[in-house]
Amino acid sequence: MSCLFCKIIAGEIPAEIKFQDEQVIAFADINPQAPVHFLIVPKLHVENAAELAAQSPAALSAVFAAADQLAKAEGLTGYRTVFNTGADAGQSVFHAHLHLLGGRGLAWPPG
Ligand code: 5GP
Ligand code: ZN
Q1: What is the pLDDT of residue 57?
Q2: Most buried of 18, 51, 97, 110 (most Cβ within 10 A)?
Q3: Which of 67, 65, 61 shows the shortest CA–CA distance to 44?
């Protein structure tokens, strides 16, 4: 098994875990881009969000529910969720994951 996030799910690589249930794990990003920057990761190994939607709509829904729950627990009044899909969009880990960003003003266009 060479997938980094599968190794975190299996407990083989440590992470600052924020939430976990049957379908989802959430942990702090190692290189945060905002005061709150968590990764919400389905336990099912799929490459990206579209694959997750195709293979398990329930898991995709659980990912968004966990993100909203964590945002509320962090006291965020607004937050951004991002799925990067493909290397050209900045995806570097090919196990689907939703970025949850907040705790500072977030610019639009993204910044
Ligand atoms: P992507 O670029 O694929 O959208 O997001 C991958 C994210 O995983 C990046 O924001 C990166 O900082 C984070 N990341 C990479 N390696 C690790 C790690 O070993 N532990 C944690 N917690 N995050 C990681
Ligand atoms: Zn994986």
Answers
A1: 98
A2: 97
A3: 61
Q: How far does the centroid of ligand 2 lie from the alpha carbon of residue 6, in Å?
A: 4
In a domain, 28, yes or no: yes
Catalytic residues: 97
Residue 109 lies in a domain: no
User: 15-36: buried (b, 16+ CB within 10 Å) or exposed (e) per residue?
Assistant: beebeeeebbbbbebeeeebeb
pLDDT tens track for 6-54:
999 999 999 999 999 999 999 999 999 999 999 999 999 999 999 999 9
Residue 20: inside a domain, yes or no? yes
CATH of the domain at 30: 3.30.428.10
Classify residue 96: in a domain, yes or no.
yes
* Domain that includes residue 10, residue range: 4-102
81 lines ligand 1 (CB under 6 A): no
Q: Which residue is closest in CA terms to ligand 1's atom 1?
A: 91
**How many separate domains does the chain show?**
1
Q: How far is the CA of 59 from the centre of ligand 1 (A)?
A: 20
Q: Is 93 in the pocket of ligand 1 (CB under 6 A)?
A: yes
